[in-house]
Amino acid sequence: MAEKKRLQNLGNWLKFLGTAGARFVMIKQLRASGGIWLSFSGSNILIDPGPGSLVKCALSRPKLDPSKLDAIILTHKHLDHSNDINVMIEAMTGGGFKKRGRVFLPLDALDVDAVVLRHARNFPEEIVILKENSQYEIGKIKFTTPKRQIHTVETYGLKFKLNETTLSLITDTLYFKGIKDFYKADIIIINVVFYEPRPGVEHLSLQDAITIIQEINPKIAILTHFGMTMLKAKPHDIAMRLTKELGINVIAAYDGMRFELP
Ligand SMILES: [Zn+2]
Ligand SMILES: [Zn+2]
User: Fold this and answer.
1) 5 Cα: distance to centroid of ligand 1 (angstroms)
2) HEC-encoded secondary structure of the chain
3) Residues 18, 25: contact at Cβ < 8 Å?
4) Which residue ranges of the chain lie beneath pLDDT 70?
5) What local confidence, expressed as pLDDT, does residue 3 receive?
6) What is the rounded CA–CA span in Å between residue 18 and residue 35?
7) Which ligand number lies closest to the CA of residue 191?
8) Is the entire prediction scored with pTM above 0.90?
9) What's the pLDDT at 10?
10) What long-range pairs does 128-135 form, CB within 8 A, spacing at least 24?
11) Domains of the chain by range and CATH?
């Protein structure tokens, strides 16, 4: 049984420990907010550990063991992305007793209104400050932060190179021209908060997501980080409709969804 569980966790995959976007879906936990776990070639990364990330790891089937994490990446310090970062750092570092793992984050996550506690900053092997248009490596996982997003705090989207496959995570941002050039990839994950455009709020709407999908023309587009209006419009139905209309495989992420990487 234990062997079967161990084998299920091998391979290359993403697991959505949450698909909640923005405040109300998170506060009410209409969707969970634990972030995304990426496992590739034996390396394990947790991206954006929002509220409940630790709990979701423990409840995952098979269980996800945070002491096996090689890195935690924070795209930005908003609570729906960062709330569990301290406890996940503790978990990654064996309660703070084993100096291991790396934490990647924007500088302002350590600055005024820091989200990483001072005493937890010594636990990981290294804290790496993300900068625009920079490259990083975690085991066989390579990633870049092509562009600082347009969002109320310092925010970076991520573009991974996983052997021959590219994978972009277009995190919270206002739509901007040229987004396609920064995030062109085989698989794109888009944080879609609003069903209808909401001018003045620095988040993507469904229309923005459609534009991005058409511009990039990926093999697969995964929608996640849903706000209330997106949930009401039923993300799964939207994804099926878009798959037909755009001729591109569009998937709506759900809590606990495991996505096998090629
Ligand atoms: Zn967010
Ligand atoms: Zn945000």
Assistant:
1) 32
2) CHHHHHHHCCCCEEEEEECECHHHHHHCCCCCEEEEEEEECCEEEEECCCCCHHHHHHHCCCCCCHHHCCEEECCCCCHHHHCCHHHHHHHHCHHHCCCCCEEEECHHHCCCCCCCCHHHHHCCCEEEECCCCCEEEECCEEEECCCECCCCCCCECEEEEECCEEEEEECCCCCCCCHHHHHCCCEEEEEEEECCCCCCCCCEEHHHHHHHHHHHCCCEEEEECECHHHHHCCHHHHHHHHHHHHCCEEEECCCCCEEECC
3) no
4) 1-8
5) 66
6) 5
7) 1
8) yes
9) 78
10) 128/102, 128/103, 128/104, 129/105, 130/104, 130/105, 130/106, 130/156, 132/156
11) 2-253 (3.60.15.10)
Predicted pLDDT of residue 34: 98
Across the chain, mean pLDDT equals 96
Centre of ligand 2 to C-alpha 43, Å, is 26
- The bound ligand whose nearest atom lies closest to the alpha carbon of 201 is 2
